[in-house]
Design brief:
By secondary structure, the chain is mainly alpha-helical. Helix content is about 70%, strand content about 5%.
């Protein structure tokens, strides 16, 4: 079972793919126009809502701990057939896409329920929560999360050891949990902002949520209400690298089914075959897949910095300042493609988690085929397109709000908006084109 894109059949678009791309870009451009046509709304601060009962917080923490224990226990001791192991399905099919997507609806949950922070508090009798922020954390910034996210993407798309081996998933989950608890106990809970990849990613996703939970200065958990497109996002070294890697990571698996990458694969086929393999690992395929992940990341990072430079020149501000302003607008795009790309595997493979333990390979294969045949490719593609267009519209709104707040001169802010809008339009067309490759009969 391949845990990436699930093929559910091909269909003919009623119009050329180019028409779909142009229409999507027109919607994104129109959303930009509406921003300036509608009367401006004053930016209001988040409203603090009621306290969350302690029982609810404990319940969230309990669920988080049980998920970690499930991944370790079922991964190590459960069936070692991938399709029959609930831990593999829970982690790769459900948690990876749905955990950040859930934070678009209710933000801050992982921060409150973080099982590793809870473990650090238990180990240190609460001292980790009271510890002052270590200066070393400011130097590290988000780079630990960048490394962890790259390894996560690499494990899934290139090495494929963890997705193919439930026991490897269980062991690595246990190692990761011990590492995170130890680092939190040593450096304090400020470590988790940039040192736990799941805390970092869910924090990014929470920036577009209109409802969130957060701890106040007294340690109580409260609701926070209101959507602010210019909402504060903690800065730190490597934040832009994390965001561009996240976007590249969710697109990387789709890139390999495009005609461009198929041509690269064909041209390097003889070279890849000549490298050989170690055990069951094909070194040629590993090298090619790793190159594809890195190349996709470099391409998206270069694209981001090129258009950030364009916006910076238009508003006459330093590149670094503008990059910090516009980088968060890539978050809704990454979330939209995360939903679009993983939608089929969630619908086809996800239900197997509840029946995997009590079935056999033949029955599981039949169930997967049945689930896939029950989906309408045209309807799925419509949902995917809608998600991507909505994500880009939100991105345009966020970029405008952040540029407006950072640049009081309306004329210069408009120039910056136009510069970054061009990036949004190209992102829209590129992501839709990549998405369409494995499901439509048009390239």
């Amino acid at each position: 079972m391949r845990l990436a894109h699930v093929f559910i059949g091909r269909f003919d678009l009623p119009v050329p793919l180019s028409t779909v791309l142009v229409a999507a870009m027109a919607v994104v451009a129109a959303s930009f126009g509406l921003i300036y046509l509608l009367p401006p709304r004053p930016s209001a601060p988040d409203r603090t809502g009621p306290r969350i009962p302690r029982a609810v917080v404990i319940a969230l923490q309990t669920v988080a701990v049980l998920v970690v224990l499930y991944l370790v226990g079922v991964g190590i001791s459960g069936s070692q057939v991938t399709a029959l192991n609930g831990a593999v399905i829970l982690f790769w099919v459900l948690l990876i896409p749905l955990l950040p997507l859930a934070h678009c609806i209710l933000g801050g949950v992982y921060e409150v329920a973080n099982p590793f922070a809870l473990g650090a508090r238990m180990v240190t009798s609460g001292a980790s929560a009271r510890k002052q922020r270590d200066p070393r954390l400011d130097r590290l910034g988000y780079w630990p999360a960048v490394v962890m996210l790259f390894l996560l993407v690499w494990f899934e798309l290139a090495l494929r050891v963890v997705p193919a081996s439930p026991r490897a998933l269980g062991i690595l989950t246990a190692v990761y949990a011990l590492f995170q608890v130890g680092m939190g106990a040593w450096l304090g809970e400020g470590w988790y902002r940039g040192g736990d990849v799941f805390a970092a990613i869910t924090a990014l996703a929470s920036t577009i949520s209109s409802i969130a939970v957060t701890r106040d200065e007294d340690g109580f958990v409260r609701l926070k209400l209101g959507f602010r497109p210019a909402r504060f996002l903690p800065e730190g070294r490597g934040r832009e690298a994390l965001i561009t890697l996240w976007l590249a990571g969710v697109l990387a698996d789709g890139v390999r089914v495009t005609p461009i990458w198929r041509a690269v694969t064909s041209a390097t086929q003889d070279f890849s075959a000549s490298i050989g393999q170690v055990g069951t690992t094909d070194l040629g395929a590993l090298l090619l897949d790793t190159t594809e992940i890195v190349a996709t990341w470099i391409a998206f990072a270069a694209f981001f910095w090129a258009f950030a430079y364009l916006a910076a020149r238009l508003v006459r501000r330093p590149l670094g300042e503008i990059a910090k302003v516009v980088a968060p607008s890539l978050i809704p795009i990454a979330l939209a493609y995360l939903l679009a790309h993983n939608l089929t595997q969630i619908l086809v493979i996800g239900p197997l988690m509840f029946s995997a333990a009590g079935t056999d390979v033949a029955t599981a294969a039949f169930q997967l085929q049945h689930n896939a045949q029950g989906l309408n490719p045209a309807a799925i593609f419509s949902v995917q397109v809608s998600a991507i267009v909505l994500g880009h519209v939100i991105a345009v709104v966020m970029a405008h709000a952040r540029l407006r707040d950072s640049e009081p001169d309306g004329t210069l802010a408009l120039r910056g908006d136009l510069g970054w809008l061009s990036a949004m339009l190209i992102y829209t067309a590129t992501s839709l084109w990549v998405l369409a490759q494995p499901i439509t009969n048009q390239a």
